[in-house]
Amino acid sequence: MNEKAPWWVGILGWGTAFVIFLPILIIAITAFKTEQDAYSLSLLFKPTLQSFNEVFERSHYLGFVSNSVYVSLGSTIASLALAVPAAYSLAFFPGKRAQKILLWMLSTKMMPAVGVLIPIYLLAKTTLLLDSITGLIIIYTLINLPIAVWMAFTYFNEVPKEILEAARIDGANAWQEMLHLLLPTALPGLASTALLLVIFSWNEAFWSLNLSSVNAAPLTVFIASYSNPEGLFWAKLSAASLLAIAPILVLGWLAQKQLVRGMTFGAVK
Amino acid sequence: MTQQVLNATVAPLPPGETLTPAAQPRSKLPLASLMLTPSVAVLFLWMLVPLLMTLYFSAIRYNLLNPDQTGFVGIDNYRYLLEDPAFWPAVGHTLTLIGSVLGISVVGGLLLGVLFDQPFAGRGIARLLVIAPFFVMPTVSALIWKNMILHPVYGLWANIFRAIGLQPIDWLAQYPMWSVIVIVSWQWLPFAFLILLTALQSLDQEQKEAAQLDGAGPIRIFVYITLPHLSRAIAVVVMIETIFLLSIFAEIFTSTAGGPGTETTTLTWLIYSIGLQQFDIGIASAGGVIAVVLANVVSFFLVRMLSKNLKGEYEK
């Protein structure tokens, strides 16, 4: 069963991979062309960084980048700060309702965002959080919190019981246990949880499009502004898009296993 | 209701066993509930407050452009929305979009999963290429497709069509719904693929080998061994994608803006345009309530279908 697949399977696999990846490949190539060359699909051209320079000069590109960074990191830190203690409590001091609480937390993800769009918009408007980074951080924290709790919980659950028992016999209290034992053991897991949360917040586009316009607009909103005729400046569009997706693409590739776990709530491993 | 969805999603718990085998509970410390409370509290507020507000707004007259018109109107907002000529088509478009993307991503994901389960050279790298679209932000994918691939003059397809002597097609104008479906599928097929491939790779090889020894061909093995093994993963993909697809917004915002006419106006887009473009909060909220109900109806049928599958699996 384990010998190599026939050659045509390889061709088929690589062929499909190429077709699916093609749109990304196109912008990755076009980003290094001049506007004049951009419309031809030819691969014969002199690579230039001109479009990148123009993107940086003409728009407040760095402003959008830093909004994306603030919002992603801010919401990730906030989600983890809320989720880690909760997951710790659920994993190591489970009350009778621990399982119900976990399931209920996930059920909040099942609500369609559009069902609460109007009240959230109005609440943000009255509290002056509309088009503010704080507002987006709050929303992203809330939508990511269930995933964060769930993932942290599954990682805590994998910490070997024996270590904990040994520590307890030696008289460690709950804080010592958490700081010196659990966090170090579960740290790789928590790191991948953080990775996943950053990816989700970076790419989130429902709330960012609806709740931000100028001051707090992250990259998702900036790129959407290219949907006007300006989007036909392909080289610039490609350069801006490539910068927006490249870092997350790399993180995503690193996190592919955790993604399966995080998005299926552990049902598929 | 949602509880049922989750019970099915998080199913692999044998009855009688709790989720928490890691440690024997000590006496429940106040510290433990102190650590749990903030998360529960914020999620509770997040769950309850906006939903109650949506319900309340849906029963009053509330238009930001006419602030002096107020008052309780009962079900008038719902009636008005249901009589809106764009409403039923919007529900139809939503279901078409969800159904098509689910079909494409599950079937395509299965085929790709089986393909990538074969040990061909460099499949690890090829796999990275296949899952890449899932990590592209929705506004970028919509724009790449709109401007560079489906564009009637300069797009990749227009070039291909001209090269083989055909008239290029203006995809977004002539087949707007299909264009949106293709864009969204491009993002979600990789997700389905990744989940299904992971599930495929956890399949017990010995079972397959035994079936082979008994003379079963590859198709019979797939139908009788592989597919049943994948049923939970498929269920998970269908449920998760349904929830996300119901709120698809950025792709439509960036590519078609609900048009041409109302041809790609989904329920989400309709609520957005009534609420945040025409500022009729009351009617948009009625739409929001309908969306929540629809989400629950969809998941209810899914759960019934799936729980049968899952039950069969447990009785073995």
UniProtKB/TrEMBL annotation, chain A:
InterPro entries assigned to the protein according to its UniProt record, in alphabetical order: BP-dep_ABC_trans_perm, MetI-like, MetI-like_sf
Topology in membrane: Multi-pass membrane protein
Principal cellular location given in the protein's record: membrane
Cellular component terms per the entry's GO annotation: plasma membrane
Entry's localization field: Cell membrane
A Pfam cross-reference name: BPD_transp_1
One Gene Ontology term from the biological process aspect of the record: transmembrane transport
Keyword S-adenosyl-L-methionine: no
Residues spanning the membrane: 7-32, 69-90, 102-124, 136-157, 178-202, 233-255
Keywords tagged on the record: Cell membrane, Membrane, Transmembrane, Transmembrane helix, Transport
Domain ABC transmembrane type-1 as annotated: residue spans: 65-255
Family, per entry: Belongs to the binding-protein-dependent transport system permease family.
Protein name: Trehalose transport system permease protein SugB
Organism name: Amantichitinum ursilacus
UniProtKB/TrEMBL annotation, chain B:
Origin superkingdom: Bacteria
Official protein name in the record: Inner membrane ABC transporter permease protein YcjO
Entry keyword Transmembrane helix: yes
GO CC field: plasma membrane
Membrane topology annotation: Multi-pass membrane protein
UniProt organism field: Amantichitinum ursilacus
Compartments where located: Cell membrane
InterPro entries for the chain: MetI-like (IPR000515), MetI-like_sf (IPR035906)
Domain ABC transmembrane type-1 stretches: 91-302
BP GO annotations: transmembrane transport
CDD domains in the record: TM_PBP2 (cd06261)
Entry similarity comment: Belongs to the binding-protein-dependent transport system permease family.
Keyword Transport: yes
Keywords: Cell membrane, Membrane, Transmembrane, Transmembrane helix, Transport
Transmembrane segments: 34-57, 90-116, 128-145, 177-200, 221-250, 281-303
Short name of any one Pfam family annotated for the protein: BPD_transp_1
